[in-house]
Amino acid sequence: MKNLTIEEIERKLFLETKADKEFIELLKKDGRKGVHRVLEKWLKEQEKEQMLLEKFKEMTSFERKLRAQGFQQIAGIDEAGRGPLAGPVVAAAVILPENFNLPGINDSKKLSVQKRQEYFRVIEKEATAIGIGIIGAEEIDSINILQAAKKAMLNALAELTVKPDYLLIDAVSLETPYPAEALIKGDARSVTIAAASIIAKVTRDRLMKEIGERYREYGFASNMGYGTSEHLEALHRYGASPCHRKSFAPVRDSLGRI
Questions:
Q1: Where are the domains of the chain?
Q2: What's this chain's function (predicted)?
Q3: Which fold has domain 61-210?
Q4: Residue 155 CA: distances (Å) to CA of 35, 185, 201, 206
Q5: Torsions phi, psi of 24, nearest 5?
Q6: pLDDT digit string (tens) for 194-203?
Q7: Residues comprising the binding site for a divalent metal cation?
Q8: What pTM value is reported for the model?
Q9: Residues contributing to the annotated binding site
């Protein structure tokens, strides 16, 4: 053991697929403080990975129970953008294969921007089918945000290229010909809904950045249409843009100052 440098030990721990138990025991007995620091760092990483694996298994429980009942094409449905003052509400419907494996997946709001982008690419590549529905600000004002979110979900469902045989939906009930279950906080409880949450959120963020190129004064590229202090100040100064939701109070109050 003494003939290995601390850097070599670190490479062996973090780059090898599975560290040998005997090797770990030898490290524990090594008198070098640097070795103990590396080992402690590795043990924390192992603990974190185990927690993610357990959380992932927990999040597949709904899907596993449904597959045991004979359902195979299980679609998770979620939306992004009910709360913002501007931009569309975007929904996604996602069907994942039974062997889908992505420990760390979670409600998109609990993930960093970098993780959302990373997981978006994995889901996009591995999903059996993905559908997206988008309802703009004008229609949101016409039918209200809840109905717009539901319509976006139904549109996303209609865009699936594979017919689902069961739906797992985040929080709301939809009128469809398919058996379904609405799960409160479903995006943190079901891997399929979490995948839909990520697809919807990343898609909407990209749309808001595009809209932000046309209406730079509101800072949409950073606030995504939410009512930040800077956004509210811009509303007060410039009035509402065509992509603002005029039925939402802060926007409604700004009308007439365009």
A1: 6-59, 61-210, 211-254
A2: Endonuclease that specifically degrades the RNA of RNA-DNA hybrids.
A3: Nucleotidyltransferase; domain 5 (3.30.420)
A4: 56, 21, 16, 19
A5: -65, -45
A6: 999 999 999 9
A7: 78-79, 170
A8: 0.86
A9: 78-79, 170
